[in-house]
Design a protein that fits this description.
The chain is an all-alpha fold. About 70% of the residues lie in helices and about 0% in strands. The radius of gyration is 22 Å and the shape is globular.
Length: about 240
């Protein structure tokens, strides 16, 4: 529980993590997604190859997206200095995919188009865990916004743009009191984004050869902040 002066009040581990992200200038929803992905990959690298339930799901079409196929191999290397479990899991995915592709190759063009649209969806279990973590974080943050300290922190937080959309959509679908709280948070967020855009414009204006000496530290920081705005700002560069 957070009891230090200046810290956001937190009652459990999940709230502590969200508070820590806000207090350190990170997007708390990015943090939640990353933590969930990390935990899922760690579990798969340790036990996925021998998990009968997972293997049965793979036989029904479960697979891995591109980032998490790579992330799984990196995670296994970190834990065991091997990629055997990754190879076993990807072999199971490939066998299923190959059987499907062979059937499609013998079908007419219409069936091929429909089949390819289905097989192109990886049904990645790590993505599913991350999406669940995102929904949980969004719901918890909107609940916590009833506390003035949390509401103020959310108003000034470096929420990435994708997660501003996510919280906004959840708030719009919520009860009136949540909508009212989000209205104030959104006003602060829009003011933050407007200031960022103005500073970015100044940075761009001063980027020509004859004006580069006018670039300020604030303008350079705005450039980095814009990357976080569109790319997210999780805790650290974990294997995702």
């Amino acid at each position: 529980m957070s009891g230090q002066p200046g810290k956001l009040p937190a009652r459990d581990f999940e709230e502590i993590r969200l508070a820590e992200a806000l207090e350190r200038g990170r997007c708390p929803i990015c943090d939640a997604r990353q933590e969930s992905s990390f935990a899922a990959l760690r579990g798969l690298a340790r036990e996925g190859a021998t998990d009968r339930g997972l293997r049965a799901q793979m036989d029904k079409g479960l697979g891995f997206c591109r980032p998490h196929s790579v992330g799984l191999s990196k995670m296994e290397l970190l834990q065991t200095s091997s990629q055997l479990a990754t190879a076993v899991l990807l072999d199971a995915v490939l066998r299923r995919r190959l059987a499907t592709l062979k059937k499609l190759a013998a079908a007419d063009a219409g069936a091929q188009g429909r089949g390819l649209a289905d097989v192109a969806e990886p049904k990645c279990p790590v993505c599913a865990r991350a999406a669940e973590a995102e929904r949980t974080a969004v719901d918890r943050l909107l609940t916590l916004s009833a506390d003035p300290a949390w509401s103020a922190a959310l108003g000034t937080a470096e929420l990435c743009l994708t997660d501003i959309y996510a919280v906004w959509a959840a708030a719009a679908a919520g009860p009136k009191d949540v909508q009212a709280r989000w209205s104030g948070i959104l006003a602060s967020q829009l003011a933050r984004l407007e200031q960022l855009q103005k500073t970015l414009a100044e940075y761009a204006h001063n980027s020509t050869v004859d004006r580069r000496g006018l670039i300020t530290a604030e303008q350079q920081a705005a450039g980095a902040a814009s990357i976080r705005l569109f790319g997210g700002s999780p805790d650290r560069d974990r294997t995702r």
